[in-house]
Amino acid sequence: MAATPSKMIPLGTKAPDFTLPDTISGKALSLRDVKSKKTTVIMFICNHCPYVKHVNHELVRVANDYLLKGVSFIAISSNDVAQYPDDAPEKMKDVAKQLGYPFPYLFDESQEVARAYDAACTPDIYVFDKNLKLAYRGQLDDSRPGSDVPVTGKDVRAALESLLSGKPVSLDQKPSIGCNIKWKQ
Prior knowledge:
Blueprint (H helix, E strand, L loop, with lengths): L3 E2 L13 E3 L6 E3 H4 L4 E6 L5 H18 L3 E7 L11 H11 L5 E3 L4 H6 L3 E2 L1 E5 L5 E5 L15 H11 L12 E4 L5
């Protein structure tokens, strides 16, 4: 389990548009379809990564807490399923149902969306403001598999609270750490 940090792209970056299949509903969804008028969270995750498994329940809790406040959440898996069959769309749907994902779980088969976002690891989390400008990127919180640090979602929650209250998001942002995106050869 190699620890790969997120790339920390520049704040203010505009969210690249996309249209991808949602493994839960079977529909093609675009960023326009799922973005919020307040704040939009885009998370690059996958099924097999121990870092994602470690935070999955908190991702669901954070989403359930903030969906009620008008925040939109989108999960995307971009891994090469030929090499990592546990990340295939049918299995994505199974995991989403098992964990009760309250957000779409999109499959980026071409990996073009991960490249457009410069995603490097799972989980890699991006929080965009109402104008789809990047306000936060990085870790969910300080917890990692095997650490004694509880999973709280504090970093993403703080960013969301700032955006929803019209305050600036702290510039003290730490990269996420996770498994690298499994790029096609």
